[in-house]
Amino acid sequence: MEFDCKDKVTLILGCASGMGAATLKMLLAGGARVVGFDNNQENMEETLEEIADEMPDHPGTLDVVYGDLTSAEDRARVLDLVREKYGRIDNLLYVAGVLDLMCPAHKCDDELWNYVMDVNVNDCFYTIRDALPMLLDHEGPAANVVIVGSVGGLYGSTAGAAYVTSKHAVLGLARSLAWSYHWRNLRVNVVNPGAIMTGILGNAMERWPDRDVMDEEGNDLYNVRGGVSLGLDAEGNNMMGDAEDIARTIMFLIDDESKYINGAQVTVDGGWTSF
């Protein structure tokens, strides 16, 4: 499935792997003018190699900025690039996110709490706030903000204290933005993934190798809702979603065909939250 986003200026935060990389490929296939931001240069280079191999003649353009979302200077640097090169943003996609290793509150120290809240909430807010002058008052179709949330924003039993709190918070942020700026031609929506095959858990374990939080207690918290699959495949493995499932949803939400969808949350979880 291809989406037409020809010449749409799109800023994507968190595009080196997983859902962000899948979305990046679809944007380029659709002809978007993409500025990508990520902190993982190794993963980004692998994704760029895949793009060169799989779609060498794509009609899009791409500038990549490496930096730390928790750095005000780095966030300003990527926005400055967009401002100087294009002067506007048609789509801002906040795909970046970190996990807390299912750490319950009594095991969540200040360092873990602050890091998860910074990346998942604070830096999301700062980036959107500072990008608003380039997002508002578009002529023609509305500009779009899409935030990747989580089923953790719908229930308390899907992860640890910091992650669940952060994902509830971005739902409130998106609703406030959608209400505040709908009259200035801006749409803001959230995609809530369920269990998706990405590297977010591995990234968390790599960042916190010495934390004993992914224990039986943490796993019990995660498994209260009984798993996340659509059943079993032919080999008896749980069927989980993939990054492309989320990327296609993001692409639909920024398409002009979804012009009346605003302030919504679209849950892509294989039915996990239906029981």
Give a topology summary.
Blueprint: E1 9-13, H1 18-29, E2 33-38, H2 41-54, E3 61-66, H3 72-85, E4 91-94, H4 110-135, E5 143-148, H5 161-181, E6 186-193, E7 196-197, H6 200-207, H7 216-223, E8 241-242, H8 243-254, E9 265-268
Parallel strand pairs: 1-2, 1-4, 2-3, 4-5, 5-6, 6-9, 7-8
Characteristics of this structure?
single chain, 275 residues, alpha/beta, Rossmann fold, 7-stranded parallel beta sheet, two-stranded parallel ribbon, 8 helices
Characterization of this structure:
By secondary structure, the chain is of the alpha/beta class. It has one domain (9-274): Rossmann fold (3-Layer(aba) Sandwich). It contains eight helices and nine strands. The strands form two sheets. It has a seven-stranded parallel sheet, sandwiched between helices. A two-stranded parallel sheet has the order 7-8. The radius of gyration is 18 Å and the shape is globular. The mean pLDDT is 89.
